[in-house]
Amino acid sequence: MSFQHTSAQIEHSTNNLRYVWVRNKFTKGLPKKLNEFYIETSVGISNEASLAVAAKLFSEPATDSVDEATEEPIRIWHTKVSR
């Protein structure tokens, strides 16, 4: 049996593992009674590489907006996490 993966598949898998790892670390410190919550992720519109990763991890963006601190355009995802 041969396992052949493209670099894009490997990168996508790596990004998914990082997301799961971060989510697990984050939820470990939360009170046990908190069964669900949202993670808000924002990426600058000019950062094409990060937009591509975020789109794969979080699916369709919720909103395009402007960062209040930098006044740069951003794309925002709201991801519901349930334990």
Question: How would you explain this protein's 3D organization?
Answer:
By secondary structure, the protein is an alpha+beta fold. 40% of the residues lie in helices and 28% in strands. The protein has a three-stranded antiparallel β-sheet with strand order 1-3-2, covered by helices on one side. The radius of gyration is 15 Å and the shape is globular.
Secondary structure layout plus pairing:
Layout: H1 7-28, E1 36-44, H2 48-58, E2 63-66, E3 73-82
Radius of gyration: 15 Å
Helical residues, percent: 25-40%
Helix tally equals 2
Can you write the helix and strand succession as a string?
HEHEE
Q: Looking at the structure, what is the overall shape?
A: globular
The computed structural class is alpha+beta
Give the amount of beta strand, in percent.
25-35%
First-last Cα distance: 36 Å
* Low-pLDDT segments, ≥5 res: 5-12
| Largest sheet: number of strands, sense, barrel closure | 3 strands, antiparallel
Average pLDDT, rounded to a whole number, is 77
Read across the widest sheet, the strand sequence of neighbours is 1-3-2
* Number of E-type strands: 3
What features would you highlight for this structure?
alpha+beta, 3-stranded antiparallel sheet
Tell me briefly what this model is.
The chain is 40% helix and 28% strand. With 83 residues, it is an alpha+beta fold.
